[in-house]
Amino acid sequence: MTTAGSGIKRVLLFGANGQLGWELQRHRPEAVELCALSRTQADIAIQEQVEQAAENFQPDLIINAAAYTAVDLAESESETAYAINRDGAVHCAEAARKHSVRLIHISTDFVFDGSQATPYQPDSIRHPLGVYGASKAAGEIEIVRILGSNALILRTAWVYSTHGKNFVKTMLRLMSERDSLGVVGDQIGSPTWAAGLAAAIWRACAQPEFKGIQHWTDAGVASWYDFAVAIQEEALALGLLQRSIPIGMIPASAYPTPARRPACAVLDKSISYATLGAAPHWRQALRQMLTDNDSD
Q1: By C-alpha distance, which of 291, 162, 258, 279 is closest to 215?
Q2: Chain centroid, CA 255 distance in Å
Q3: What does this protein do (predicted)?
């Protein structure tokens, strides 16, 4: 069992119903009292609700895992995306400052445009391609303005879990329903199991010196095509699928979406791996997720 340590006993979590929020609850250290709030219980876009939650619970640390993550829908719902991803971040940061506690805020590789051939460093220049990435970048900027480097902004990517909607569960469903699939092969990233990310966040809670903007994903890189092929292979080996279907590689241009996506937004995790311990390769994590029976 992971321990929070460093005097952290009471943690206030926003975004309880998301993939990461669910895993953070599953992996809660025994010594931690966790107040996990869903959007219906505390909407981070509403300042009064965030303030009231912090006032009622009096946490030692706040984790903001709440976010507007509908990448394509954000293009037509920019006001809502910014209300949650920027203004919500402001409200969490202001609550942390008022109560003199640390904030751990989860961000995304979508703050980058994915145009460079080498992994992005934590201090790389942000250049988002769409509303989702821009709203998350704005949230990062506001947290730094309010809390300086005392907060931990942890960027991640391609998150999946046994809980909620995600690429892995969608692929498993389509592979059982269809006779073939075409999957984008020219977008590169690092698939990340939410359970491993949650465990890393709990380790980060124990290290208050781990702050500023940092990165965490599982090790290795893949295209969506690579990821899909691995999902089918692992699922067949585990008996989760009864047959193999052909999977073709298609360009992103053949699957147009309202929002542009980074072509190669790989994050450099060397600092976080050195501090928190290295993550497993994404293929190993995928195998673990597929053998995890605790799902919704």
Answers
A1: 279
A2: 24
A3: Catalyzes the reduction of dTDP-6-deoxy-L-lyxo-4-hexulose to yield dTDP-L-rhamnose.
Closest residue by Cα to residue 89 from 119, 134, 128: 134
273 is known as an active-site residue: no
Q: For residue 255, what pLDDT is reported?
A: 84
CA distance 150 to 44: 20
Task: Report which of 110, 90, 282 is spatially closest to residue 195, judged by C-alpha positions.
Answer: 282
Angle at 112 between CA 104 and CA 137, to 5 degrees: 45
Give the CA radius of gyration of the chain. Answer: 19
Options 68, 120, 132, 160, the catalytic residue: 132
What are the sequence ranges of the domains in the chain?
Answer: 10-164+192-218+267-280
CATH topology of domain 10-164+192-218+267-280: Rossmann fold (3.40.50)
Contact 122, 213 (CB under 8 A): yes
Query: Is the pLDDT score of 88 beyond 60?
Result: yes
Structure-token pair, residue 204: 């980060």
In order, the DSSP letters of 180-204 are -EEEE-S-EE--EEHHHHHHHHHHH
State whether residue 60 is helix, strand or coil: coil
Using pLDDT thresholds of 50, 70 and 90, give the confidence band for residue 2: very low
DSSP 3-state of 222: strand
pLDDT of residue 3: 46
Residue entry with tokens 């599953």: 26
Question: Predicted confidence band at 19 (pLDDT cuts at 50, 70, 90)?
Answer: very high
Q: What is the mean pLDDT of residues 193-219?
A: 97
Query: Binning pLDDT at 50, 70 and 90, where does residue 293 land?
Result: low
Confidence (pTM) = 0.94
